[in-house]
Amino acid sequence: MKLTDEEQALRAGAFGRAAQWAIAHQIEVGRYLGARDFVAVSQAHVMADTESLGLAGVEWLEQLARLPAQERRVRISTITDPRGTDFAAAHKLKQQPWMVDLERRAIGALEALGVLMTNTCINYQTIMPPVLGEHVAYGDTGVVIYCNSVCGARSNFEGGPSALAAALTGRTPRYGYHLEERRRATLVVNVGLTPRELNDWGALGGIVGRLAGDYWQVPAIVGIERVPTSDEMKHFGAALASYGSVALFHMAGITPEARRLDQVLAPGHTVRSHEVGEAAIRAFQESYAEAIETIDVVVFSAPQLSLIEMAQVAGMLAGRRAKIPLLVVTSPQVKGDADRMGLTARIEEAGGTVLSGMCFYQSYAREMAEANGWRRLATNSAKLVNIVGGYGYRPALMSMPACIDAACNGGRL
Amino acid sequence: MSGEIFFAAAGMGRKVRGQALVAKDGFSARYDLDRLRGVFSRPDHKLAGASYVGRVLVLDAAKGGVATAWMLHEMKARGVVPAALVLNAVNPIMVQGAAFADFTMISGFDRDITQAIANGALVEVDPTGERPFIRVI
């Protein structure tokens, strides 16, 4: 990789040991992926829940945190993905004290590096959305795909160590979606139905993700008949990224780089195309619901809920009562507003539990299942159903109203 | 077949030997593994129930989210980890995770590597030279 004078100084340790580790890590990654040089980034978003970090990862962060202050501080605005617990509710979730202790240690270390503990995977709805053409280093696949596609920002998937490296150096290797030529569509998906419910948007994202197949594919969606809301784009993108490991999509006539489809097609190249209709979306959801007659827990999470979704849940619970656990997971930023506007109280008075700053699958989901006897889980998040099977759950993908009905019917579907 | 060699487009880590565990399926530490028991746990994964500890995993593509970047490091620290990853296609997360964990990985072949290596074959993975490769011993 071609290095500037500053990057060579970073490599030589002139900016301290944390930045020296960071640029060495980035060079190794950049060389593997064919980066010619670095690109400056304005923000970093670090995924660092302790279920992923483990003790080894926390101890590694603490090593960085013990460096002298001038050697360990991040150089750009750096925020965090959800944590592995909501400290106020850890006991209710039957999370173990060692989990909570590990979270506290990780937070202490990240704060010592100058990281802002936003604990959110919806920073594009709540903190500071990137703008068209802004190069950033974001973790959380849902964050990356939304910001690349809907905002027109430039980011690859940056796992926790690499996002932190970008925070410490202020740059990232220039490969993948930092390059204009990588942002062109590689497949076209003609959609015969504009989804209505969030779970339908997630199902469509899951189907397109399976069609796309890997990280380097960029689907262009054609046929969406109205401009989706931010929450709809959120569920579509999160599922697309989850099922396909996809980091960028275009939606013809809607997303900023594809005002017309031909703007994202390479001239003279043909790309494969697919058709997706209502039957495929229905079949996708039915594939998760087979032989499930009752459920143990309802979860709204992955991504965290916006204030609008919180209001929808509160409204659907009006005059009713959840008879099985109903977990409603949001960001600390939304939680404050939900408290102030009485939404939290309305949900909890109806038997729900509002959780803040965590995400269900990042919060020791396997251990929570064993401690609480949860196995059959209902959610409106396609991303969540894709993940929790590996944690021992049998998930059902349903609409928000159907999930609320199930919770209030004692789990009967 | 013994002695067959397959060159990869890129590689990192150290030379290792092990028994291949092969499937035409993806890899994500978060989505696919029970990392405490060291087995594939996603029910619809083609290797569901199989132990990956000490095996050379020969799979199709990196999948899933960003967690693998931390998880390879955590798995290696506990010694409940594959010997190496051999993939047709990587995503950045797998590269970042392998770099952070000092883990052996090669990727990018001129054929489908999951069809070229027999499940259970003893293989050597060498990412250290100009042309990284996997060789059937």
Folded structure, characterized:
The complex is a heterodimer of chains A (413) and B (137). Chain A is 43% helix and 14% strand. Chain A has 3 domains: 5-177, Aconitase, domain 3 (2-Layer Sandwich), CATH 3.30.499.10; 184-285, no CATH class; 289-408, Aconitase, domain 3, CATH 3.30.499. Chain A is of the alpha/beta class and 413 residues long. By secondary structure, chain B is an alpha/beta fold. Chain B has a single domain (5-136), classed as Phosphohistidine domain (Glucose Oxidase, domain 1). Chain B has 4 helices and 11 strands. In chain B, the strands form 2 sheets. In chain B, strands 1, 2, 3, 4, 7, 8, 9, 10 and 11 form a 9-stranded mixed beta sheet that branches. In chain B, helix 2 (68-78) packs parallel to helix 3 (92-101). Chain B is globular, with a radius of gyration of 13 Å. Classes of the chains: A alpha/beta (413), B alpha/beta (137). Chain A binds chain B through residues 25, 28-29, 32-33, 47-49, 51-57, 60, 139-141, 156-162, 175-176, 213-216, 241-242, 245, 361-362, 366, 386-387, 389-392, and chain B through 10-12, 26, 30-34, 36, 41-45, 61-71, 73-74, 76-78, 89-93, 95-97, 99-100.
- Overall CATH architecture of the largest domain in chain A: 2-Layer Sandwich
Assembly state (oligomeric): heterodimer
CATH superfamily of chain B: Phosphohistidine domain
Taking the sheet with the most strands of chain B, its summary is: 9 strands, mixed
The residue fraction in helices of chain A comes out at 40-55%
Task: Give helix and strand order of chain B, one letter per element, not per position.
Answer: EEEEHEEEHEHEHEE
Class by SSE composition of chain B: alpha/beta
Helix fraction of chain B by DSSP (H/I, runs of at least 4): 10-25%
Q: Might you state the CATH topology name of chain B?
A: Glucose Oxidase, domain 1
The CATH topology label of the largest domain in chain A is: Aconitase, domain 3
**Separation of the first and last Cα atoms of chain A:** 57 Å
**Order of adjacent strands in the largest pleated sheet of chain A:** 12-11-10-13-14
Low-confidence stretches of chain A: none
Q: Write down how many β-strands of chain B occur, each being a DSSP E stretch of 2 or more residues.
A: 11
